[in-house]
Backbone:
């Protein structure tokens, strides 16, 4: 894993039960500033590894949202630094503004910075805890 913010060709772990386990960042869709992704940014991810028999296939592309990062954010005083970059696979809702997770459960907590983002109500409600 890289010890930087997420950028192109960064390997990431997928923290939901959608069937994919590893991915690689292809493009940053909603960067907050510059060419790096931070917590809450949207990515286009290529699936590199999946669970056998799942709907999501190896080599397919999907949109993803970063929920945990191994770099502490400067703007948030209570943000933590985790050991890995973790993402969840998402898709757009009916109106195009809401982000709907592909999986029904997340592995571990999510960052509390996700609560401040627009269109992330469903992500926050599915998660068991946020830190």
Residues:
């Amino acid at each position: 894993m890289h010890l930087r913010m997420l950028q192109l060709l960064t390997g990431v772990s997928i923290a939901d039960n959608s069937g994919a386990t590893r991915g690689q960042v292809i493009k940053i869709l909603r960067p907050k500033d510059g060419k790096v992704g931070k917590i809450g940014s949207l990515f286009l991810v290529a699936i590199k590894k999946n669970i056998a028999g799942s709907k999501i296939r190896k080599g397919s592309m999907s949109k993803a949202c970063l929920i945990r990062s191994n770099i502490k954010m400067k703007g948030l005083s209570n943000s933590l630094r985790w050991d890995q970059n973790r993402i969840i696979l998402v898709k757009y809702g009916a109106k195009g503004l809401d982000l709907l997770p592909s999986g029904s459960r997340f592995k571990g907590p999510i960052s509390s910075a996700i609560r401040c983002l627009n269109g992330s109500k469903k992500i926050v409600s599915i998660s068991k805890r946020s830190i």
Observations:
- The chain has one domain: 11-126.
